[in-house]
Amino acid sequence: MNLVIVLLIIGLLMIVAGCWCLMRTFHLLKMTIGIEVAMKAVTLFLVLAGRISGKIALSETFVITVMVAEVIVAVVGTGTAVGLFRKYGSMDVRNLKQLKG
Amino acid sequence: MTILSICAHGFIYGPILVVLIYNLFNHEFARKHFFWFAGTGAVWQILAAIGGFTALNQNGQTSYAFGAFWDIRLAGAAFFELNATRFLLLLIVGLVALISVLVAHQTVDFNRSSYTNLLMILVLGMNGMLLVTDLFSLYVFLEVTGLCCFIMIAMFRSRADLEGSFKYLILSELSGIFILTAIAFLMMKTGSLRYADLAGLGQRISAGSGQLEDLLVYAALILLISGFAIKTGVVPFHSWLPDAYQSADTAVSILLSGAVNKVAGVYGLMIVMQLFGDVAPVGPSLAAVGIISIIIGALLAVRQPQYKRVVAYSSVSQMGYILLALSTGTTLGLVAALAHILSHTAFKSTLFTNAAALQEQTGTLELKDLGGLENQMPVTAFTSIIAFLSTAGIPPTAGFWSKILIILALWQAGSPVLAGVALVAGILSSAYLIRLQRTVFFGQTRPELAKVREVRGSVLTAEVLLTVITLGLGLLYPYILLLLHAGGIL
């Protein structure tokens, strides 16, 4: 098994871990962390893409841009979670039952 | 400097300038006069789209490439591009922004400065998505658009707002992860993400070869379609959509349904279809998602308890029609999809503007508390009927012609079964619309609603403007069909 396959498998495992975290936890911050873990796997894929296609500089700029974007998403997600914590007094996602049809 | 280049640069610098100038003033002044700043931004967008398109036509060009402040002839420089499709979508963005500002003038109160700033950055993000020519920039502007939406939904900090925003954030980020993974996989195969380099990938991959990179390209296509389908909000990825639309302020709902899910979702799928339409499974999978979405969306809309939720599920159903038109991959299919995007913008914005009017005048949108408002609110009742006729596809409204075009495109592409299903599903959409119209406007006036009066001012202007667009387009369509016939498309 070469390095590319190993890194691909590691990345896929990280995405599965992130999605597992989204499905199995009921804590708003943990869900945000799950998203972040999956996003880190994607940066790994971008680095790998740069290595395979031989355009390492391009993929480095992509990775830095993605990092900025995901940090902003994490900030907004955490902010929303804190807002919900102030309303409900807990971070449990099972409280969110206002919107139903 | 030609008119075309001024208009083209205006799409980028216009919103930025409005934000910069708006924040020079003190808070109280800015809050009081937000209407003029945001309105100028929106009107500028509309004028630039119309003026730019006219200039492009007069020059006889089909597309125009430009850089924001750099020379595009440098080796490897990224560039923006404008063509007829993009001009139409830019016009829709401007129109929806204008309607949203008109509604926000009456519905938004304390958050007006944040609303204006976020609206302009949202317009900038959508303009960016429409102008760029490579997949990674598309992702970056998609993220800008998404972030503005999360904040705009949560802006009023009620329980429902925050809940809707959090649900949207989680699913939207999931779609971001899908799209970015797909981008990485495509880059492994091609080493470049420009549309020009990615086109024709179908010839370069061989299905049965079992090469790792070819397998990854197929995975990338699945991920791209699911990512943009989440953003579009079609079944089975629709769970965030009614919650977000219901919880957001109506001015924001108009933006979400009128522009964001078309530009962030449908335009993305358009790009996928344009680049990878020759890879076999792409078209049929879009058609499958579309047909499921039409039927399930309409069935779910029938039994919703709240006005905006019914309209939101109707949006899911109508997006299905657009995907169905796109899945044909022909020029007529693209034209039909664009026509339905335009008429959907007009009638769905009308319905949401009516929701704002009802909310302002009666204070509720729960269907069980509304009834018999026909005499108190005659203009709202009338515009709502026109919007319903357009949604259900009944002449002489714009929705009729765009649905006819979709069915013709399906028939021409050799799938009469899909065309038949699309035709029959129109009956389903009449079902939920008749229910909505009957509960809200027809019948006995409820005693507690006896003192309700017609809405005034900017919301009324928005309702009338949108109805004129729906009817005007409906009456103008035979001319457009003649143009299409002359162009050899129909």
Explain this structure to me?
The complex is a heterodimer of chains A (101) and B (490). Chain A has 101 residues and is mainly α. Chain A has 3 helices and no strands. The N and C termini of chain A lie far apart (51 Å). The model of chain A has no long low-confidence stretch (mean pLDDT 91). By secondary structure, chain B is mainly alpha-helical. Chain B has a two-stranded antiparallel sheet. Chain B has a domain at 293-490. Chain B has helices at residues 3-22, 27-32, 34-59, 84-107, 112-131, 135-154, 159-190, 195-198, 201-204, 212-232, 240-247, 250-276, 282-302, 307-327, 331-362, 378-392, 398-412, 416-440, 458-486, and strands at residues 63-66, 80-83. Chain B is built from 19 helices and 2 strands. The radius of gyration of chain B is 22 Å and the shape is globular.
Briefly characterize the structure.
Chain A has 3 helices and no strands. Chain A has 101 residues and is an all-alpha fold. The model of chain A has no long low-confidence stretch (mean pLDDT 91).
Judging from the principal axes of the Cα atoms, what is the shape of chain B?
A: globular
Q: Rg of chain B from C-alpha positions?
A: 22 Å
Instruction: Tell me the series of helices and strands of chain B, N- to C-terminal.
Output: HHHEEHHHHHHHHHHHHHHHH
Number of helices of chain B: 19
Low-confidence stretches of chain A: none
Helix coverage percent of chain A: over 70%
Cα distance spanning the termini of chain B: 37 Å
Helix content of chain B: over 70%
Question: What is the assembly state of the chains in this entry?
Answer: heterodimer
Strand adjacency order, main sheet of chain B: 1-2
- Percentage of β-strand residues of chain B: under 5%
Largest sheet of chain B: 2 strands, antiparallel
The overall strand count of chain B is 2
Q: Could you say what the CATH topology of chain A is called?
A: Helix Hairpins
CA distance, first residue to last residue of chain A: 51 Å
What does the average pLDDT of chain B come to?
Answer: 90
Provide the gyration radius of chain A in Å: 17 Å
Portion of residues in beta strands of chain A equals: under 5%
Largest sheet of chain A: none
Helical stretch tally of chain A:
3
What global shape of chain A is seen?
elongated
